[in-house]
């Protein structure tokens, strides 16, 4: 074998050796990556907690379930202070590291309804007295704050709308938000209690922070009785959490700094069970009762919901108004909708007296069934 042939063979083996070395290196990296991934699956997850107090080298922490523990911090853990969020080991709850404030932010915008309502006062019927009251307490301070500065008084922080369901409480709140071009932030008290055990106080803080950021704004708390019912001395852990959320709400309403362009509107069907603390002077001290509409109110609400409907000429609507006595605004709207359906089923575009009377009967029957279900199942 000559020298050239030998050189070619050696070059070939050298190239193959380099190729094998590269492949071997790649395989080792893949194996290490798979081992690291496997370690992740085998490693128990860390818990998130909040530092409540620092006592020497030890910490008092609170888990999301509301339980408090007295624990140590691992060596190398940065200096902590009350309010910090930390990661803790599951077995003995040792603090391992601090979480940056950006990581612990509770994204409140996912859990509340935020909108710029377009409801005008023309959409509200039969509530002239309530409309004037809410304009005086909410609209006037937001539109003409200089009047209150000149007189030297602080405007009310909020109001409480109470009365039977379906009478237009939410509609009033949206109308005043629209008239003042305010951001409307809606929270449902019952959902706050059910979904956010352990997070209620934090959510309340962030709702008010969000409201200040988007001011002028109106915080509308529907079913406020779910978190502001009369407090009891002894209760379950869930009831204690509700009370903590309620206390945080009171603290935000009081505050060291006046709420300014942030107004609060509470709404309830059960004013009788509310804790007196929420309605005392300086809090939601303006109580506005929103009743079922009288005959004139029924007529106004009916006209609002039928303004785009084609009604058969000569229809005596007074008979319909009388039959709807005791109906809420929501039920009057349902009558108008059902009457339209009766006309559509007969392939008509005009709604007549029979359609309206049938619709009234249908809504009354539904109300009777709802009351029976409520009586049986509470």
Task: Compute the average pLDDT.
Answer: 84
Point out poorly predicted stretches: none
CATH class of the largest domain: Alpha Beta
Order of helices and strands: HEEEEEHEHHEHEHHEHHEHEHHHH
- In total, the number of strands is 11
Distance between the termini: 102 Å
Seen as an oligomer or otherwise, the chain set is single chain
Largest sheet: 6 strands, mixed
Number of helices, where a helix is a run of at least 4 consecutive DSSP H or I residues = 14
**Name of the CATH homologous superfamily of the largest domain:** P-loop containing nucleotide triphosphate hydrolases
Shape: extended
Q: Measured on Cα atoms, how large is the radius of gyration?
A: 32 Å
Task: Indicate how many domains the architecture comprises.
Answer: 4
CATH architecture label of the largest domain: 3-Layer(aba) Sandwich
The helix content is 40-55%
CATH topology assignment of the largest domain: Rossmann fold
Q: Structural class, from helix and strand content?
A: alpha/beta
Strand percent estimate: 15-25%
As laid out across the biggest beta sheet, the strand order is: 6-8-9-10-7-11
